[in-house]
Specification:
The protein has 3 helices and no strands. The chain is mostly helical. Keywords: Coiled coil.
Amino acid sequence: MSYTPKPENVRVPNHLSDAELQQALEELDSKIKTLQNRAHATTASSHHTYHEHVAALEVKRAKLAEMLGRDTDSTNRAPSTWDEIRRGIDTLRDDLRNLI
């Protein structure tokens, strides 16, 4: 990517199925983890944009998760334990992001 993405400019596709949404979320989690590891591995004085990339990917991930949640809510399915765990992890992630 030749530019640093901005969270307010992130777009997500609207035509994905539930399986494709789940796969996209898993891929974004992997990318976010990789970028966070790279940010931790760099020296303090080096100029990098890993945190900005992570912020943009987090916004995209939240939008995809919202789309997946909306699709599952439309089937009138009761929230499972995994949905509650995912919600807890997302809340924890947001809290950690606010601390940094």
